[in-house]
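Render this sequence as a predicted structure.
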Amino acid sequence: VQLQASGGGLVQPGGSLRLSCAASGSISSILVMGWYRQAPGKQREPVATITSDVILNYADSMKGRFTISRDNGKNTVSLQMNSLKPGDAAVYYCYLRSGDLRTYWGQGTELTVSS
């Protein structure tokens, strides 16, 4: 199973960006998909998680600004990020947890928020 994340880049504060992640390979079933992020010098932290159709959670600092969505038919998960702040700058990692309880990670895509 491979996850390919894309969409990172440089955004000005207050701007928006959309990250996408596509899963490929032999996947029996997917329980959840989601995103984590890791800023320099900090631990990886959860951003948002979604089941097939239910958003499980968002980190408090991202509620109201970030929206996670999923295309079950294409095994993709996206993260729409609005009102970006310098503190959102990080490498964003997508992941999925399969029906056999294995966790797979994407390679990460970097977001820079700067004027």
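Summary. DSSP finds no helices and eleven strands in the chain. The chain has a mean pLDDT of 93.
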